[in-house]
Amino acid sequence: MSHLNRALIAAAGLNVILAGCWAQDVAAPQPSPLAGLDYKDEFFPGAKYDSNVPTPSSVLGFPVGSKPVNKGQIEAVIKAIASKSPRCKLFEYGKTHEGRTLYYLVIGSESNIRRLDSLKADYGKLSDPRKVSKEAGDKLASDLPALAWMAYCIHGDEMSGSDASLAVAHHLAACTDSSVTKMLDDMVVIIDPLMNPDGRDRYLSMLAQNRTIQPSVDDQSLLHNGYWPAGRMNHYLFDMNRDWIFATQPETRGRIVAINQWNPHYFMESHEMGSQDTFLFMPGREALNPNLPENIKKWETRFAADMGAAFDAHGWRYYTGEWNDNWYPGYSSSWAALRGSVENLYEQAAISTDAVRRPEGTLQTYREAVHHQWVASMANLGFLAKNRKEVVADYLKEKRECAGADATIAHRTFAILPSANAARMRQFRDLMAIQGFEVLSAGKAFKASGKDRIGREVKDREMPAGTLLLSARQPLARLLLAMLEFDPRMTPQFLKDERRELLRFGRSLIYDTTGWSLPMLFDVEAFEIAGDVPADADAKAAAAPAAAASAVTNAESTVAFVIDGADDASVSAAGRLMERGVWARVADKPFAFDGREFPRGSVLIARKDNMAFSGDLVAVLKEVCTELKVAATGIKTGLGQGDLPDLGGEHFVLLQPPRIAILGRDPIGPYGYGEAWYFIDHVLGVRATYMEARNLGGADLRRYNVLVIPEGGGSIVKDHIADLKAWASAGGTIIAMGGSAAAFAKDKEGLGDTRLLQDVLPKMDEYRQAIVREWEARQAMPEPDKIWSFSPPESVVYPWMIGEDDKASDDELKRRDAWRELFMPAGALVAGRVDDRSWLTGGLGEYVPVIYSGERVFASPATVQTPIRIGFFTPAPPAPKKEEAKADERPDTKSDKAGDDKADDKSGDKKCEKKDDKKEDKKPAPGWTTAPPGYEMRLRMSGLVWPEAADRLANAAYLTRESVGSGQLILFASNPTFRAAALGTSRVFSNAVILGPGMGASQPIKP
Ligand SMILES: [Zn+2]
User: Is the peptide bond before 539 cis (omega within 30 degrees of 0)?
Assistant: First the structure.
């Protein structure tokens, strides 16, 4: 029976019952012969095996590597091997969202397997030089077998590695040749055969559905690609090869815990890339994360030489470097290297199944792809065993640089201030714990100097007791630094190369986001302190975060219950209470009842609103609050002291239960969709409808009052703009991100007044005036003398006074903007200044770190609320003494200046500083360009933002809200729920989804 016929039968699930007779029973044509479909090379010719250990082929019923196997088959093979081979032990390490079990298989010599627990403990000692004397450490390094961690297929549609892993597992577990038994004396191997079973099985079901009798070797066919969302990501469409530093997904969490228990010296992960490519392995190329240890770079080069020779022996083509950078620490390979493992990355040309025709006319079969992964794996393991002592000694040396008496790594400490946002702090603490970082807590208030998150120097700043302190001097120092440090820098040479690439080809060398700093993404107030943990902080190991004291206090209260809006979980609580029929309100201003203060955004459950509630209100409150670990405080009076809001006034807005629909599938981008899906379903925990975007036209949208349109839905928005407008006008809340938001911002074809910057360049004065007006509205300091004057003023101050020196033609403005657009970030953290009078920003501080990527920039006029703009204003440092800047000197215009040139900020700061009104010039005070007089703008927080891009982003709208009839349109310039880790902007998204129908839209009272 031909290979394809067999594959077809297997795909139909009939291989057991009908094998051999299928062709007779069903009248189907035979496949046309296609030369080259059979790949005959044996993986390990002549090897001898222990016949007690079943071969993968005997378990599968076909030769291993002849076609991609599914999760169930992988599990069957490793269980069969583990049950019969005394060299193996199988461990479970987690479950996927879809309930599939994750495994790793430990393989070693029989004696090593018998003493596995003590080996594990010794590997732990080797990983923390503080736990063992120098002599004992050196002895361990010399005696211990090296530990390899072989991880296959984190991307579910990159198939060949998992099949190779079965062959590797059997070979190591059963081969009786001395080459293998010797290897196992020197090395313990851990195989994770399949890191993403949900994705792989999803992809295999697509291949099965697109299976044909006639062979297809065209890599553009559905058989070789699947369709939206294909198999790369896990259930909620997360790329788990970006999740290592965030650990939001259960697969990642299980793996990190397991790897931290074992502390491998070598780490490999296998992937696939474009079908017409060859094979790539380490070392990578710049940009490299500056925290990567030196010994890793050395060993990558040595492993590469050996591996190249193994491929050369077969005449196979391969390469290193080229597109493979190691800047972002959330890839498997950089994460593992940063925690000390020599790492390798395999990228095989993807052959999803059967074979693919290549440009030179040959076929590359699936089995050959598996063979490449096999040869790569065995070459690396052999090389590791051979160099065991040196690799392990270098591992120990690296750990000694990080911690213990001989540590050399620079003293640096991260201080995270306590916060009333308990959910946020819990998530931060959880992530630090799962990564294995040591966290201390200040026993008392102390003073420290260093830098804040937007690069401002702080001196002797008071930090309260309870401040979390993370010292870089600990065994996982490099990973900790890579995750937490504020501002890693690329080398000047890389910047030069990148700029040339952008200018010459309009493309970037950067492979992923350039900024990710955890204290920024999580938006926790943090400082980088030079030096070790301050002695006067009286720091001790931080205890686990305490749960809310009691879910409901003052349960007998007759007026209302309040849930503190500082806590992210308060929004979720509001959503979940409304889902159960409880009416809730949200405060749009800070307030105080019974002498206790609450911030804006706090949720209030009034007894009176819930008179008709059929259940036990307190019991439901208790249940929801307990689950979310928040407290509801009963209040006895609704009277706010003085000017503070009272319960019956306008500042406690009644919420409307959200009825949410989210658009998904083509043309919506799977990542943005997955992040919104995960966030609403898994983080907020409220019901929603996940709809096919293309069905929008025919859907009955009246069922919903919130419609989320993730990135990528521009064409859908364009095609249905009239329907969307009618729906919003009737009270709906539209929330759109990135490209979908841009479609609403189109003049004439869109909805609302927000525009893309490039479309309004000739009218920028108008948009800048809106920005100035917003700022003045917050800062206004009227001058009573002038107001009560009986004469009109000699002149009126127009605070903008901009653009008058620079009347560039429209063509010139476009040229300048096109130039700036070339340099837009591939993903960087920028500061967004926050309007504290918007309900959308409840829970935020005065600025929020925003992940910005792509070329889109939004401009909003005064008719549009803009709760978050890019660029945070901070008082400018005092101007240098020498020649006092003249107050009447008008600053240069914005478009002439690159980015953070602060020269103009220092001029004419009299108006805002208000130190001496009487001396103010008679002439109008000069206006501002990027920042008001007396202030400077802080924009870049972390990652690569070219000055041209900073200039373009300064004052751009990140978040806009405008009314559409009885409803509203909310636009995010980029995805707020980035990788489920951008917790600052995620809070804004929660506010929009849960509070939107009540806060920004109006619903009719039912008669
Ligand atoms: Zn991959």
Answer: no
CA dist 215 to 223, 238, 355, 477, 1006, Å?
10, 32, 9, 52, 62
Q: What angle do CA 369, 372, 377 make, to 5 degrees?
A: 130
How is residue 887 written in tokens? 């107050």
* Residues 524, 525, 530, 536, CA torsion sign: negative
CA of 241 from ligand 1 middle (Å) equals 7
Question: What does the pLDDT average to over 201-214?
Answer: 95
Centre of ligand 1 to C-alpha 3, Å, is 27
Mean pLDDT of 199-227: 94
Query: CA of 139: how far to CAs of 134, 405, 528, 898, in Å?
Result: 9, 18, 37, 58
Rounded to the nearest angstrom, the distance between the alpha carbon of 272 and the centre of ligand 1 is 5
Provide φ and ψ at 290, rounded to 5°. -65, -15
Instruction: Compute the distance from residue 290 Cα to the ligand 1 centre, in Å.
Output: 23
395 CA distance to ligand 1 middle (Å): 27
Across the range 68-83, mean pLDDT stands at: 98
d(CA 856, CA 872): 20
List pLDDT tens digits, range 651-701: 999 999 999 999 999 999 999 999 999 999 999 999 999 999 999 999 999
In a 13 Å sphere around the CA of 664, the CA atoms on its Cβ side amount to 20
Give the pLDDT of residue 766: 87
**239 CA → ligand 1 middle, Å:** 9
**Cβ(888)–Cβ(849) below 8 Å:** no
* Distance, CA of 860 to CA of 972 (rounded, Å): 12
Residue 185 CA to ligand 1 centre (angstroms): 32
Distance between CA atoms of residues 267 and 147, nearest Å:
9
Write down the pLDDT at residue 538.
95
CA–CA gap between residue 652 and residue 55 (Å, rounded): 69
Q: Please give the distance, rounded to the nearest whole angstrom, from the Cα atom of residue 12 to the centre of ligand 1.
A: 27
Q: Please choose, from the candidates 254, 67, 249, the residue with its C-alpha nearest in 3D space to the C-alpha of residue 166.
A: 67
Q: How far is the CA of 100 from the centre of ligand 1 (A)?
A: 20
For the chain, what percent of residues have pLDDT higher than 70? 92
C-alpha 219 – ligand 1 centre gap (Å) = 17
What is the residue whose two structure tokens read 């917050």? 778
Q: How far is the CA of 250 from the centre of ligand 1 (A)?
A: 18
Quote the CA–CA distance of 439 and 427 in Å, as a whole number: 14
Distance from the alpha carbon of residue 931 to the mean position of ligand 1, in angstroms = 44
Outline where DSSP puts E strands in 361-433: 363-365, 412-416
* pLDDT tens, position by position, 954-991: 999 999 999 999 999 999 999 999 999 999 999 999 99
Q: Is the peptide bond before 29 cis (omega within 30 degrees of 0)?
A: no
For residue 347, report the distance from its CA to the centre of ligand 1, in Å: 7
Distances (CA, A) of 59 to 78, 152, 190, 336: 10, 20, 21, 33
Amino acid (one-letter) located at 903: A
For residue 706, list its beta bridge partners: 660, 733
Per-residue buried b or exposed e for 434-451, using 16+ beta carbons within 10 Å of the residue's own CB: ebbbbbbbbeeebebebb
681: how many CB neighbours lie within 10 A of its CB?
15
Which is more confidently placed, 16 or 225? 225
DSSP characters over 191-234: EE--S-HHHHHHHHHHHHHT--SS----TTSGGGT--TT-SSS-
**Which residues fall within 8 angstroms of residue 172, CB to CB, at 6 or more apart?**
87, 107, 180, 183, 184, 189, 381
Three-state SS string over 324-346 comes to: CEECCCCCHHHHHHHCCCEEEEE
φ and ψ at residue 712, rounded to 5 degrees: 105, -10
Length of the chain, in residues = 1007
How many angstroms separate the alpha carbon of residue 350 from the centre of ligand 1? 10
